[in-house]
Amino acid sequence: MRYAIFADVHSNLEALDAVLAAISGENIDEYLCIGDIVGYGADPLSCINKVRLVTQNIVAGNHEYACAGLFALSNLVDAAAEAVVWTRKTLPAKELEFFKNLPLIFENKDLVMAHGSLDDPQDFYYLYQPHDSRETFELLKKNICFIGHTHRPKIFVKRDIIVSLLSGYKIEINPEYKYVVNIGSVGQPRDGDNRASYCIYDTNKQDVEIKRVSYDIEKAQRKIIEAGIPRFLAERLAVGR
């Protein structure tokens, strides 16, 4: 099985289109989305529709939950909260109802995925460093868990009781170890690389690769500014922070 996995689109249609175009040449069997399709950007409905065309395997992110009234706006920084309010007003009621019905965790025979963490997934914890992921590793029954939320691609590995950060963005899976793979963000990278991020997981080769693709940042920025969404959310796209 060959999976294409992506997260944190954040209503950035230009980035999503670039990622889907790149994935189209990857001979994919199944697509998976790890939440936050909306928020920050100016094309929430178009992004929802495009994601749902390629997969129904979608978990809720904090922005879906916030739009649906299931996650308090006080948990978000001001610009994010403003974007959520704008998104709520923009989307049809049926899409907000769709958000309410999204699962927090997805699991199949090959993998597990959650937007933030496996422990208390409704609280959307951030796993920035290896030690942040210990509870997720304790709950992980498969070899591998895919997450998003921080917008920073990273791969954590647990060997016996030791949890550490792996270097690089392509790894071979050792069946004796467990892995938590943060696949980064399609629509708002924050690791200093402004290119959209996505992941390919090949269960036959037992390898994982996080990939990047460029997109039309200036067009995405113009849409955000014209929509009246906080300008900061447009400006940060160029620097990937």
The sequence of SSEs as H and E is EHEHHHHEEHEEEEEEEHH
Instruction: List segments where confidence is low: pLDDT < 50 over at least 5 consecutive residues.
Output: none
Distance between the termini: 33 Å
Structural class: alpha/beta
Count every beta strand, where a strand is a DSSP E run of 2 or more residues. 11
Enumerate how many helices there are, as a single number.
Answer: 8
Q: Specify the biggest β-sheet.
A: 6 strands, mixed
Oligomeric state as shown: single chain
User: How much strand content do the residues show?
Assistant: 15-25%
Indicate the radius of gyration in whole angstroms. Answer: 17 Å
Shape: globular
Strand order of the largest sheet: 3-4-5-9-6-7
Measured as a percent range, the helix fraction is: 25-40%
Q: Report mean pLDDT, rounded to a whole number.
A: 97
Describe the protein's architecture and organization.
The protein is built from 8 helices and 11 strands. The protein has 241 residues and is α/β, with parallel strands linked by helices. Helices cover 31% and strands 21% of the residues. A hairpin with a 4-residue loop joins strand 10 (196-202) and strand 11 (207-213). Helix 7 (217-227) packs antiparallel against helix 8 (231-239). Strands 3-4-5-9-6-7 form a 6-stranded mixed β-sheet. Strands 2-1-10-11-8 form a 5-stranded mixed β-sheet.
